[in-house]
Specification:
Layout: H1 2-14, H2 32-42, H3 44-61, H4 66-84, H5 92-109, H6 115-138, H7 143-170, H8 174-194
Helix pairs in contact: 1-8, 2-3, 2-7, 3-4, 3-5, 3-7, 3-8, 4-6, 4-7, 5-6, 5-8, 6-7
Amino acid sequence: MRKNAKRLMMAVGMLPLSGVAMAHSGGHAAGGFAGGLAHPVTGIDHLLVMLAVGVWAAVAMRKQAIKPVLVFLGFMGLGAVFGMNGSTLPALETGVAASVLIMGLLLVALAGIPVKYSIGLIAVFAVFHGNAHGVEMAASATPLLYAAGFFLSTGLLHLCGLTLGGLLTRLKTGWIVRSMGIAVGGAGVWMLLGS
């Protein structure tokens, strides 16, 4: 078990080195549902934050783990509406990259930061991620299908994070969660240096 956990941590830690672009390249703009579905999983920034929110929620909030996920989805929708209407947040890429770093820190801290502040941070991150989705959605041939795709994909990534976090909680392997946090935070630093 420990050997597999180390392999998982190495794989997660190496993701930023894989050459996967940040999610805001505009490459999915005409893709409709498929483009929206792909957007959160093809950008390492979105992928890490969506999974980290799920893991954090499962570990830090346990019985109320769905609350931060619903907060994220709601505020992501708000950010998407702004982006779809042509409003790009200042320092969008920096905000998204910072969300990766801070979600990593939340995983490392676990219960060290009060839940209400953590959920507030998650809401802010969601607005940035939603705005990035919305900016691309505005150029999509079918914006509503694009939105349905990225909401579904985001929800599935959160579900994967919740499942993983729940498993790690039951196995009492907080060190793996903290190691994941270090890897996610490191990816955030790498993204901030590149933005």
